[in-house]
Amino acid sequence: MEHVLMRCILFYTAPTTSPLRPALAEIHSDSIIFRDDFDSFDGNTAVEYHICSGYTVLSRPPTDANALKTVLIRLPPKARGQGICFKWSQAPTVPRPPNVMPYGTTTPADFGVGLPNFSDHTEDDDDSYSPSEFDILGEGHSDNEYHDTTKPPKTTRETTTNYAPDEFDDPDYTTPPYYPRTTSYSYDIHAVEVHDDPDVLASPSEVGQEASGSYQGCWAIDHVLIVNMAHVPSTLQDAFNPVNPSDWLSLPGAYFKQQCHSEDTAMVFNHESPMTAVSSRDLDLSVKDYRDDLILEEEFESNWQVSGGHIDVLCGIIHSDNSMVFTGPGKSRKICSPFIDPRKAGNVRFNFGLGSGGCHTDGNIKAEVIVFMEDKSEHTIYIIETLSVKSYVEPSLVSVPLKPVERYEEARICWLQKYSGGQDKNVWAIDNVQVLPFMPEKSSTAKDKVAQFSLNLECGNNPHNNEVELKYSTNYGESWFSLHQPCLPNQCDGKYFPTNTHFKCDFGYTGELCRKPVAQNPAILLENFEGTSLVPSTGVEHILGASLSYDCDVVSTGKAAVFNQDGRREFVTAELNTTNTMVGSNSPVSACPAPEKTKELVLLDYSCDGGISWHLLKMFNIFDYRTAILNDHLFNTLRLDMNNLVDDGDHLSVTQGRLSDSYCRKMKSISFIGRPSNDDVRLLTTESMHIGAGYIMQFELVMGCGLPYSETVDNRVYLEYSTDHGIHWNLVIEPCLPPAPCESVHQGTIYDWTQFREWTRITIPLPVATWGPSTRFQLRQSYWTNTDTWGVARLYIGQQCPNMCHGHGQCNEGTCICDEGYEGTDCQPATHLNDKMLADFGIRYEPDHDFEHVRGGKNGVRELITKDMDTRRSDYLQFYLRVGGGGADCNGGEHRSHGVIVQYSNNGGVTWTLLDELEGTMYGKPRFRWWQPQHAGKGHDQWAVDEIHLGQYENLRLLEDDFNGSVEPLDSGVWQTATGGVIGKYCNSRNPVLILANQESDKRVVTKDLNLKVGDVIQFKINVGCTNQFRWDHPVMLQYWPRGGNGFKLVRQPCYPEMSCHGNHSEGSIYYAGPHGHWELVIIPVIEELAKYPLILRWWQPGGYPYNFALDDVYIGPPCDHSCHRNGACKNGACDCYGRFDDPDCQSDDPTPYGMVDRFEQLHRPADFWRRILGGHLGIGCGTVDAGNALFLDGEGSREAVTVPLNTTYLSNELTHRCTQPSSPNEGIILDYSTDNEITWSLLKVVEPKLYNGSKERIVIELPPEAKSDRTIFRWWQPLGYGGMTKAEWGLDSVTIGVNETNLDGFQDDFAGMMPDMFTWFQTESAVPRITCNSKGNALEKEVCRNVGLPSNAINVPAI
């Protein structure tokens, strides 16, 4: 609501003497620009009246009243400014009333002397909009119509309000918003006009002149009021001591004095005034955060039915930007909202304009727009509001209450213009449609609005007929609505949460919110209605409409309070302390005359805020209480600890059981032991009890006492209830299991022996179905054998204890008796609970550390229940789960009903809630439960859970561990899991490393959650199996799981030639024994995909006892300089170089060869140009590729050839040959290069295979500029493919990385070594250094000397 005006109307109050009224004549106050009630001063008016622009001053109008109308005018923009005069006149011959002196209607502080510049008028908003209000008396029709038969027939006359601006322009004048609203009052008081042209004002010569014609009767005005809207307050507070007239726009018939037992001055009304009402000034009750309560918000693009309208700005800005504008012809203009639930809707608000902006209007009243609600059959339910033609020439906010409509589940709101006058005539626009509930639910600031007042209606002569109605207006008093409508249960929606920050506590109350009584409130109310008259006791606030009698016969004992009087019938207690109390009453509608209408029911409400708001506790239906029925929610408790069973035997009956000593180590219990006979049923049954809200049932149960139950019969124990004295029985809680739709998944009150092998306390909040005046309970076992014994100890049925003692105490009439280790009124733990859990179920893990119960034999219930945990700072619960499968030991699980449920409990397992995510409602001290609702029995539908981890997100920016600091892997604080991991030496490692070995299960190393950024690196040393033998099975995979994801993914996916790899072919982050059977440093740059969300990383090796791997030097975070050139590990942000490499970035100082040539003929092994060759050897397995041997790659696993770093600054080409018969594009050969020591690789060429063709191929490649560096490594490799499928062998021969430009420094070689210098010569095929041909020292001997290649432009070449 933008501004709300509130009005109280009171009729026929008692007379008063010595009336006191405030002066209601004022100018330029905080709320009033001009007001005159013509009563405030004797003989003279409180304001001065002057001649203005030629008008004369008239005497005060008479105060007689025949027909009274209140006229409200919204001042147009031209009537708002500095120096404005107003005139009331009657045509044709009535003398003019006085013109008031000029008044400034733009601000509340100054008298204006300037004239607004109307030619520059704009329609910008301004808070100084000033409505004008006055009472006018005439002969025409009115609310109280008056006819004088002694007068001649009336003629039409016109009453006009004019204003006259002063004659000075004000250059600083800012035009207020334009709010014209001219209204026709009957047919003898016409539209009120405002003239802004000084030329139409009367000249001085016209003063006193009369026009021709005549008139019938006379007219009068009273209470002239021009409201100041420049500063609208948000609160109104008036104790009338003294009264502040600025707070009240009108208060006819009101006097101020101490009367009606008021503590101080009060506003008093009596029957002498023709009208008794009071209207407050406008208040700004707007809120900003109401959007959370919206039921519907305008989105004309979806589900809106529109006819004759379109999106446009034709009518100006109605609210913001575009609006829905209706220009269509005929009766086609209609818009309807989507269907909503009208039972929840309480208010519709929208911005509306008719003829606004550049849109047309001719003022025809038939062009009004009707707002109504209709059902799905397009039948009108009721009219909400009628929007008049002349009221919305300037767009404004319309806020209208909606009636409660209980019998319609769906309805919609429509706007309809039945008459328009034709295309583009009487155009209207609507925007910003919103539907809100009756009372705010979620908006915090919307809940702190309250209307508070003290009222006394019983101090007059006839108080029973008094009635006051509190109304409000959101359109400056034009229309009024009741603040609250009467509403019966199920006919309204919403709650009321009043608050007040400015108050004075009533007598007897104190505290910040006046909620703390000075004296303690009583905790018990017992009212038997005895005595001779109905006098409220100390526990009763008041009783209305009742008498003390036997008119309804004897209801309980003696007389009763019989509500049979006229007027309101109500019984209200005083404030009670109900912290540990239930409430009830004997209040039937019984043998008295039967009610005929459902609205004559009796309601039992309660209030926790001193009677400001009431909430339904119980509804007494008229058909259910024709006879007296006990409604007692108090003192109805069953408590048996079996030691006093003799005294309490009347409350309990036992069939096939007996009171035993020391059954299953319990001193006293009711046990069921023995052989079955005559198909009898074992029963433990209570007598009838009255059960109500907040009741629980608690008992201790043991089944079998450690001995197994038989598997041949249904020997479970059922807890049941009956509300018809044992004729029909039902489970207290029915099972609700998947796939059935359940609000809460649970197994019901059916107890299996596998869950109760030891004494276990069971606590059950009793559901609504068990509530009633005569409820019985029973524990039943229908079938059993000799070994199927069970016992019950300590049975309690009664009032619930605080938080049900969190499942760690006995409940005794609302008080907890806590178990050992727990304390307080609700049995909180006495010591700190674990806030983390890491259950890897490894050989060193003890389940008792984290788990209360682990149940899951081949039969019975399968469940895993943790101990209570402190999860106030926890973010996630993570675990691995497998259900069923195809193996002999783990199968089935094909049906949803055989799935596993994960739940949590905040009360020690009393109630369980399905866990989808760790929501705010579960933070506290919960326990968790995994359980399988159903399974097919022994050997079927098995399931397993592993690596349960409860913790909080840490969002590590850096993870670093070299495993040198502790003997326990998790002590470093960066790992979430390292299943069975130990720290030690592995495969000739110099320092301790993390070893994953010697376990049959899967091996996992999982980091805590990381928050990585693009450009970070993942660095680690890995060794898989410590062997050079390649193995397809049991590789180690590096994976990641992004937060919010649904599974692990490889950090790098394999990408082969047939895939779209964008030049980034790789085997992915999969590490096999053989290629990674030695220590190797891996560095993976973090790409955008890994930096989108926080994630965890996992090294994972499938299970198997013989398989193992180890990690070292793990570093994840911002890279060190050049990633240490992969010649060292990044530690603490700096490089820790390996071997002979030096700080700071571990770059090698060794010279690199300028290119290379290898024909693979050197002593049956590749030349020293190769860093590694996997899966290959020298030979002719593919035949002769070029000449002689070739590099033949036919190994089972990885096949690759990687060069040492080469200086390719001056290189341009290379040669390669391949062979054999491939059958798949993925068997091609990938040639790539690295300039950062194998951290990253760039594609040079994919040699695609010629399918089913083994011909030789000569390849020549020009090196791109990016491949030319002083340390370039080349790699030929063939993808592993999928699952070890056969792939073609291939050969490589005559690899030449040639030179176009030589080393500028030249070279020299005297061949003193065993082999030619590879840094000098490209090709020395079959040539060896030795003394030959009479040489002095060694020379390079070759049969055909021309086969010795020299660098072109070489200098200092020795003799050959």
Describe the structure.
Residues 117-173 are annotated as: Disordered. The chain has 1360 residues and is an all-beta fold. 0% of the residues lie in helices and 31% in strands. It contains 1 helix and 88 strands. The strands form 25 sheets. Strands 35, 38, 39, 41, 42, 43 and 45 form a 7-stranded antiparallel beta sheet that branches. The longest helix is centred in the C-terminal third of the chain and has 4 residues, at 1088-1091.
Q: How many runs of DSSP E, i.e. beta strands? A: 88
Mean pLDDT: 75
Instruction: State the share of residues found in helices, binned by percent.
Output: under 10%
Q: Indicate the low-confidence ranges by residue numbers.
A: 1-19, 54-65, 93-130, 137-212, 493-503, 581-591, 628-635, 917-923, 1211-1219, 1344-1360
Shape: extended
Portion of residues in beta strands equals 25-35%
Structural class: mainly beta
What does the main sheet amount to? Answer: 7 strands, antiparallel
State the end-to-end distance. Answer: 105 Å
How many distinct helices?
Answer: 1
Oligomer: single chain
Rg computed from alpha carbons, rounded to a whole number of angstroms: 48 Å
